[in-house]
Predict the structure.
Amino acid sequence: GAVVSQHPSWVICKSGTSVKIECRSLDFQATTMFWYRQFPKQSLMLMATSNEGSKATYEQGVEKDKFLINHASLTLSTLTVTSAHPEDSSFYICSAREGRYNEQFFGPGTRLTVL
Amino acid sequence: TQLLEQSPQFLSIQEGENLTVYCNSSSVFSSLQWYRQEPGEGPVLLVTVVTGGEVKKLKRLTFQFGDARKDSSLHITAAQPGDTGLYLCAGARVAGGGADGLTFGKGTHLIIQP
């Protein structure tokens, strides 16, 4: 299957700082990538759809000014958590779509801890 | 909003037993995918079902898509400790060319005890 990487794997930051997470499709081009958030013992919640060369589409309740998404190339999307607070601590996972049936391939996730 | 109800949420059984996980919705999905996720990692795609009534087998795992494409099941035969993990079903909201993300069920936490 298609391979998606994320960087960093984990990050610890102070409250008020910004954190950037990268999502790369390694062996295919992805015009569309997705960002999910997952709390412990819970399922994935879609935050936004990242579209190459255009603005991201955010799900209801997700602040676009807080979670900045940039999809500047066909293999890279970034999520920047601005002015992070402890409640932003979570497991962030990206995915890229490939194939006819909307199959998504996920990155390994990024554990964000805001102190 | 299309919702996927997944059951059971938690299941702990002995090695060698059989189990079935269900994924139900009132909405029709163009395709449905099953993922398995281990702690601290991203979900790994197991299978995609597309056609109503479709049955796919992956070793000891059998996946079925309902005739109306609203529900799906995952059956594991002779479960092994290596099957332990979080199983997620996810429905595709738009067929083919859409840019929407997947709608995920809440997941089934499966523990297989040796």
Q: What stands out?
A: The mean pLDDT of chain A is 92. DSSP finds no helices and eleven strands in chain A. The radius of gyration of chain A is 13 Å. Chain A touches chain B through 30 residues (CB under 8 Å).
